[in-house]
UniProtKB/TrEMBL annotation:
Organism (species): Streptomyces tanashiensis
Protein name, UniProt field: Uncharacterized protein
Length: 299
């Protein structure tokens, strides 16, 4: 019992799914709800952000941040609006602020089981790991291991992974208090020019740099006149083609992903590995970030 209006604490004992990741522990987490906001994405993201700011004042900047995507620790399902998390890594225990089913939760967990679970998901199969993971140079991260990733083998896989990522992105960046800038390059057999620029803070904006022979308007792209908010992100004249996908809970992830994939293919990308995440995207507010859930190469 916590005596908080947000609800009681929950102990998660080691069960059948957790046994392979533990070494003598009886429990894999103690979760304490800290708020129960309205279920919409904007309210959930705001509550997470408020909890983050409060804990950061007490403990300092977290050493790890990211999103669990659609697969939480030990195979839990995650909230539909987004699955951001922050970790203050320690030994033998780690404190995590997590997006829970009803609102943000503080989770005390033994460090090794959680990290062992994550590391062992790097098996190379499609969708083996979702979300993204970032760590900084905090001394607490000494000895931190990183799993291998996976590679998308079909355009349908890219569409699904991009759709999941883009649909939740503004809610997650708002909750975490970060801004992501992700250039995507499209290999066309001769070179790999910049094709898209995905920018997300409290709103998601995407610019398109498709060659002139691609009919961007027919594929769903608009101009600054149609998406005036993008003027503050990309300027008013160049690039010509862009879209404002909205704030928390607003992006239509699947539709956006279909538009990006159709544009990439029209621009000459023949294989999913021809869509490349720019290395610049890996540096976010002092964290080095790996976008595990996309299944795309980085270059």
């Amino acid at each position: 019992m916590t005596g908080r209006s947000s609800g009681d604490a929950r102990l998660r004992p080691v069960g059948d799914y957790e046994k392979r990741y533990v070494d003598g522990e009886s429990y894999v987490e103690l979760a304490v709800p800290v708020a129960v906001p309205a279920p919409d994405a904007a309210s959930q993201a705001a509550a997470f952000r408020a909890a983050m700011e409060e804990v950061t004042v007490a403990l300092g900047k977290p050493s790890i941040m990211g999103s669990h995507g659609d697969m939480g620790p030990f195979y839990d399902s995650e909230p539909l609006w987004g699955a951001p998390f922050l970790r203050w890594r320690g030994r033998p225990d780690t404190l995590e602020l997590r997006a829970g089913k009803s609102g943000p939760e503080l989770v005390l967990q033994p460090t090794d089981p959680a990290e062992n679970w994550f590391w062992r998901q790097g098996v190379g199969e499609e969708h083996a790991i979702s979300g993204f993971f970032g760590s900084n140079r905090d001394q607490a991260n000494v000895g931190l291991g990183f799993p291998g990733g996976w590679t998308a083998r079909s355009w349908e896989t890219v569409t699904r992974s991009l759709g999941d990522f883009l649909g939740a992105l503004p809610a997650e960046t708002t909750a975490l208090g970060i801004r992501i800038g992700m250039p995507l390059y499209g290999r066309n057999g001769r070179s790999a020019p910049l094709l898209f620029d995905v920018v997300c803070g409290d709103r998601l904006s995407i610019a398109c740099f498709a060659p002139d022979e691609v009919d961007a308007a027919a594929l769903g792209w608009g101009t600054v006149a149609e998406f005036p908010h993008t003027a503050s992100v990309f300027g008013e004249d160049d690039p010509v083609w862009r879209v404002d996908a909205g704030g928390p809970g607003e992006p239509k992830g699947r539709a956006l992903a279909e538009m990006l994939v159709a544009t990439a293919r029209a621009a000459g990308a023949n294989d999913p590995t021809d869509l490349i995440i720019g290395g610049e995207a890996g540096y976010v507010d002092g964290y080095h970030v790996t976008y595990y859930g996309l299944g795309l190469p980085t270059g």
